[in-house]
Amino acid sequence: MNDTLAFIGGGNMARSLIGGLIDNGHPADAILVSEPNAEAATALHDTLGVRVSNDNHAAATQADVLVLAIKPQVLAGVCTEIAEDVRYHRPLVISIAAGIRADSIDGWLGGQTALVRCMPNTPAMVKAGITGLYANPGVSADQRRRAESILRAVGETLWVENEALLDAVTAVSGSGPAYYFFFMEAMIEAGEALGLNRQAASKLTLQTALGAASMAIESDESPATLRRRVTSPGGTTEQAIHGFEAAGLRKIVHDALRAAHDRSVELSAQLGNPENLKK
Q1: Between 72-89 and 249-271, two packed helices, what is the crossing angle to 10 degrees?
Q2: Of 35, 103, 190, 208, which is most buried, counting CB atoms within 10 Å of its CB?
């Protein structure tokens, strides 16, 4: 028997998760989406076959698993609205709202909630994402498996036992796709400066990025070992690596991820206070 999954919010991440779940065999009619935008709700029903509603109470009361797929700025209000429903029906609650700590969500829902907090990333939209997950003490082993199976519909998963580590997950993988896009931009521009047209520079850069990532995933060797293997002494690759090292690329990366981590900590503190969300 399949769990009834209810989503509050039908945005990009919710649509990606729902599409992945249906592709993996979860019945569309066992999924309910509460979406206030009538046009978006109709599109979800027409394209994915799921049930739709504009009633958050209906989602909370019918769900075995309730996914909060809404913006952090509205999470406190929605949780307060459905708190009585959650306290009575006791679904597993999964939050993909960035930055808001489990204790804050649990408090808004009235306490003693079985809650999993997630940090997905945008490649989930092409089923190539990775999601960091944290379970509060109210989550059972079976509920952990349920949460993992839902997020695995759009990629890989990684559990952290200390919630504070989700800030590191945010810095590495949550924000990470933008770092690679930025590096791709720079490589494409460099290729153009060397005489390639933009189409050729883009194709060479993007396929190389895909190939390198695929090699790293499939290999038993570390990226450092793979890099050394393709860096012939005195060759072209070695000259480029020397250039990166001379420019301090490692320190730049370390400093950038530290800045992302620290900002994640700051935002979590701000977003966890509903008074701040009103400002």
Answers
A1: 60
A2: 35
What pLDDT was estimated at residue 277? Answer: 47
In contact, 238 and 245? CB cutoff 8 Å: no
Nearest by Cα to 164 from 253, 256, 94, 269: 269
Report residue 168 as tokens. 């590191």
In the chain, pLDDT over 70 holds for what percent of residues?
97
Closest CA to 269 of 79, 103, 107: 103
Question: Residue 268 and residue 257: Cα distance in Å, rounded?
Answer: 16
Contact by Cβ (8 Å): 106, 82: no
Domain ranges of the chain: 5-169, 176-266
Q: What are phi and psi of 134, to 5 degrees?
A: -135, 130
Find the helix or strand (DSSP H, E) in which 96 lies. Answer: none
Query: What is this structure's pTM?
Result: 0.90
- Distance CA(156)–CA(134), nearest Å, equals 14
Q: Between the CA atoms of 266, 267, 273 and 274, what dihedral angle is there, to the nearest 10 degrees?
A: 160
CA atoms within 13 A on the CB side of 144: 15
Mean of pLDDT values over 251-261: 97
| HEC profile of 228-267 | HHCCCCCCHHHHHHHHHHHCCHHHHHHHHHHHHHHHHHHH
Task: Provide CATH code, domain 176-266.
Answer: 1.10.3730.10
Domain 5-169: give its CATH code: 3.40.50.720
Q: In the predicted model, is pLDDT for residue 268 greater than 90?
A: no
